[in-house]
Amino acid sequence: MNGNLLGYFLRLAFRNLQASRWMTVLIAVTLGIGIGASMLSLSLLHVLSADPIPSKSERLFQVTPFAKHGRIAPAAAFTYRDAVSLSSDTQARLVILAAGLSTFRSTQTDTAPPRQVRVRYTTRHFFDLFDAPFLAGSTWGDREDADGAPVAVLSNELAQEGFADAGAIGSSFRLGGVTFRVIGVLAPWRPAPRYYDLSIGAYAPADDVYIPLNAIKNLNDSAFASFSCPPGAILPGSATAARLPTSNCVWLTAWTQLDDEHKQQSFRRFLDNYLAAQQHDG
Question: Which of 100, 207, 208, 214 has its CA 20 to 30 A from that of 198?
């Protein structure tokens, strides 16, 4: 009996659907769009909530400056003097970084027009700290870090576009009025979100050129770095990237990897002592 009733209702439903074909099509399309939108939303949620570096996310820390009353400073960045002082704790292996723009011209293809590139000013442990994979070459050394040597690591995309089949390692290019030598090329790498610097967008394109932080002191006005000057800050002369290290403006962020509780507590004590010393000096 139940089977006969079920068959009857199915036949009745089928006849009703045939009687209103356009309405049936509209309902099917609406259901399809709804299911598609739901699956797209779930897929985006999965991608956007993913851990960009699961192998060490619990051991990476951004060192964040605080304003009065324990609030995070709006710029969430450091002056050059403070960043260098904080990096004196060698156990923490602090990585200092800043973002900027500049014009790039390969000396291998002087006929090609210059292009604007995204520049990452940073210290040598950037690639190790954030697991940036190398396709060829390597990062620079401690001496190049301190001297701001004109050496660079390129993104995979820029290396292919700027040097084509000639090979980028050992080649040179002009950036900010300085000739840099390529010592490394990254494999395709674009963490999502770009957690190490959210200032220009969590899903902004990857950086094109990575150079030693101190190399910024030798660049001309065609190079720019993001900065913020609070009231009373002094930026000598015109607002060029080369003058930022001698200014009171904030433009640097800092990250470190602390592998265990002991290192975390040790670095916290170091920061507390540094803060106390700064407050004592007014």
Answer: 214
